[in-house]
Amino acid sequence: MSQIKVAVHKFSSCDGCQLAFLNLGADLLLLADLVDIKHFAEAGVVDESVHVNVAFVEGSVSTNKERQRIVEVRKNTDYLITIGACATSGGIQALRNMNDGKAWIEAVYAKPEYIDSLDKVLPIAECVKVDFELWGCPVSSEQIVTTIRSLLSGVTPKDNTEKVCMECKRKNNVCTLVTKGDPCLGPVTKAGCGAICPSFGRACYACYGPASHANTASLSQRLIGIGLTTTQVSEQFQLFNNNAPQFKRASDEVLRK
Predict the structure, then answer these.
(1) Does a structural domain hold residue 43?
(2) pLDDT at 1
(3) Which of 24, 88, 118, 122 is the residue whose CA sits 20 to 30 A from 249?
(4) Which residues contact residue 238 at a Cβ distance below 8 angstroms, ignoring those fewer than 6 apart?
(5) In which domain, by residue range, is 137 found?
(6) Residue 221 — φ and ψ, nearest 5°?
């Protein structure tokens, strides 16, 4: 049986999610024996137009050129996986969607007409069909390996359905929301990070995006109960995954109270 052909593409992002591959270290060499990596500029393999079985895409679509390029990426792959907050929901740069992006460009650049920038930052799924999403800012090496292992076994990858609170319980972490009154988003955030921040006494910032069936309304009430204003609660949902529908809706709803 021939190896599956893989490509890793970058759009508007910080490259952090691509590092989930490089951080595999020696295991990356093992991975290279299991799959045929056709395009991965970060690792020195460049052939963006090649047709592959699986394409991993990091980053959001922020320019007209990127919007055209993601269409070509989609045409050249059988199975497209978005990796990270930028690709899945727009990421940090999607914060400009809540403001006048054109005015920002005009304020910064002497010749704004030369800047190729869309009015809104777009997640990949708003431009092309996405087959599977890996959330995280950044995603972890474990997520990448688990996903590839599933594909190699002919199994459809599955996402983590737990919330960060479950990871905290398994690690015997003291709840920062209950004991310290810190505005923690763990109750509405998808698990997968290993509860890194709470393990060091910090509240969860929702790096891994909204969990399924996240009760954002209940958490908003709890955050107001510990002393946050409605504006401060709204801002809690405007971080790494501010453009995710569940968090965007939660941010807007609390301001209407």
Answers:
(1) yes
(2) 47
(3) 118
(4) 95, 98, 247, 251
(5) 5-152
(6) -65, -40
Check whether residue 92 and residue 213 sit in a common domain.
no
Per-residue pLDDT reduced to its tens digit, 99-120: 888 888 899 999 999 999 998 9
Provide the token pair at 205. 């910032």
Residue type for position 37? I
The pLDDT value given to residue 2: 66
* Statement to judge: residues 124 and 209 lie in one domain: no
Q: How do beta strands 5-10 and 52-58 pair?
A: parallel
The enclosing domain of 86 has a CATH number of 3.40.50.700
The proportion of the chain whose per-residue pLDDT surpasses 90, expressed as a percent, equals 87
- Residue 148 has φ and ψ, to the nearest 5°, of -65, -40
Q: State how beta strands 5-10 and 132-134 pair.
A: unpaired
C-alpha to C-alpha distance for 81 and 198, rounded to whole angstroms: 28
Mean pLDDT of the chain: 94
Are residues 85 and 209 in contact, defined by beta-carbon separation less than 8 angstroms? yes
Q: Evaluate if residue 44 carries a pLDDT over 80.
A: yes
Burial code (b: 16+ CB inside 10 Å, e: under 16) for 105-136 equals eeeeeeeeeeeebbebbbbbebbbebebbbbb
Q: What is the count of structural domains for the chain?
A: 2
Instruction: Please state, in angstroms and rounded to a whole number, the distance separating the CA atoms of residues 190 and 172.
Output: 18
Rounded distance between C-alpha atoms, residue 220 and residue 235, angstroms: 11
Domain boundary pick from 118, 152, 186: 152
What's the pTM?
0.93
Taking phi over 0 as left and psi of -120 to 50 as alpha, with beta for the rest, 209 belongs to left
Are 136 and 21 within one domain? yes
Note whether 5 and 35 are within 8 A (CB): yes
